[in-house]
Each structure stands twice: as structure tokens, then as C-alpha cells.
Amino acid sequence: MNKKIAFFDSGIGGLTVLHRALQQFPEEQFIYYADTLHVPYGPKTADEVRGHIYDAVEAILRENVKAIVIACNTATSLSVKELRARIDIPVIGMEPAVKPAVEMNRESGKRVLVFATALTLSQAKYNELVSRVDDHNTVDSIPLPELVEWCEQLDFDEDKITDYFRMKMADLDLNMYGTVVLGCTHYPYYTAMLRKVLPAHVRIIDGSMGTVNRLQQLLGLSEQHGVWTEDQITFLSSSGKSEDLDNMKHALQYLQMSNL
């Protein structure tokens, strides 16, 4: 039996990364594990979240997997170093795409706006990343905790979400920004709504492409041609509830229909 590639997140956010992997490697087999018993991670303490992550990874390792993608910026910042020391298969993490965003704006002098969870923004890993790449102090950060909760509820109400974005950015001069970084894997579900609020020149990026490219490099995968099907994915959750598995499938279908 071919070994599978596992994707892990607290909830359905990591499906935005899996979706990109499915498009790039439609002949691979995947596992998607959501820690639905403990989502969202953002409001919890770092120690609580680490415990949940280690329990989830232990469950994943009981499956026939050849790599684990930690498809969650918060989980990566808290645990990826320790997981790599413990596990003898590749562990691929994520980080907000601050470096490419800064490089995109270097010539224009525009600023970078990062959206992430409060826990991600509070971690040394994030602050070290910004310090390393933001040599002209152009990066601003805003936590958007409500988006994770709405996403988990499959709440994609356009009026509510666009009003929320406007409220969160009300004090900013958006013309000063060249790029918005989506630093939580839940946030890309709302890209189209965010686009309606931002000036046309502002680019929106996330870390999923870099993560999938790193997965390709570590596993020596070749880009494949074909169409993926849901049969290639085994959905698992810490709750084991059928409604949680159904939510994952519906969320993936939403991504596919929205061309995200």
C-alpha cells in the first residue's frame, strides 16, 4: 500500500493547503486530520496547544504516512522544531509569508499588513521572522480571531465578513500597503470578501504555495497531471463525530467551487 501524506490543523483551515497539494499532486493519497475537539487554538495557552498537537500527531502516526504537513501557522510556531526531533519522517511546517511580501514591496516602498491569530503573533518565531526580513520596519500585524470561529461554522456571509474587515482596518490608510499576508490557514476562505475591501493595487498572499513546494522538494515529488477526487483523502478528527467529517468535506467543496 502506498504511504499517504498527512495534513494536520486544528480545524478546516488546513484544507486550504491540502487543496493546493491536491491540485499539484492529484495522484497522491492524503490524510486530513482536524483537531475539532480543541479548535480554535488561538485563544488557548501555548502549553495547552502543544499538548493537543502532540496528541494529534501521535494519532496521525498510527496511519500509513510518509510525511506530515502542519497546515497551521500557530501549531508550526509552537511545535515544529520539537516534532522534527521526535519523528523520523519529514515534518513540513508553515509560517506567514512575510519574507516574500517584504520582497514584493521593496522597490515600491509600500507597507505589509499581516493577518494572523493572536497566539501566532505573540510567538518568538513570528517576531524573529519579522526582525530578520523587515529591515525597513514596514510590517504591521492585526489579529483576526473571529474569522477562525466563523470559518469553522462554515459561515461565509459576505455582508458580515466584509463589514468585519472594514471595521478591523478602519484606522489604517490602506493606500500605504502593497501586500496583505494571510497568516492563518483559515483566512484564505475569505479572500474574495477581503478583495472587495482592499484597494485594487494590494496583493493578497499566504504561505500555502511555499509549504507545498517544500513538501514536493522533501519527498522528491513530480508535478502530476490529472484530476483529484475526494476518494484520495481520508478525513479524520479528534472528536470522531460524523458531522465534523462532513464539515471538512463541505469546506473542501467550497474551496473547489470558489477556485481558491
TrEMBL record:
Binding of substrate, residues: 9-10, 41-42, 73-74, 185-186
Pathway entry: Cell wall biogenesis; peptidoglycan biosynthesis
Reaction catalysis annotation: L-glutamate = D-glutamate
UniProt cross-references to Gene3D superfamilies, sorted A to Z: 3.40.50.1860
GO molecular function: glutamate racemase activity
EC number(s) recorded for this UniProt protein: 5.1.1.3
Keywords: Cell shape, Cell wall biogenesis/degradation, Isomerase, Peptidoglycan synthesis
InterPro entries for the chain: Asp/Glu/hydantoin_racemase, Asp/Glu_race, Asp/Glu_racemase_AS_1, Glu_race
Active-site positions on this chain: 72 (proton donor/acceptor), 184 (proton donor/acceptor)
Stored Pfam families: Asp_Glu_race
Gene Ontology biological process terms in this record: cell wall organization; peptidoglycan biosynthetic process; regulation of cell shape
Similarity remark: Belongs to the aspartate/glutamate racemases family.
Family matches, as NCBIfam families: glut_race
Its biological purpose: Provides the (R)-glutamate required for cell wall biosynthesis.
Designated name of the protein: Glutamate racemase
Species of the source: Paenibacillus amylolyticus
Gene name of the encoded protein: murI
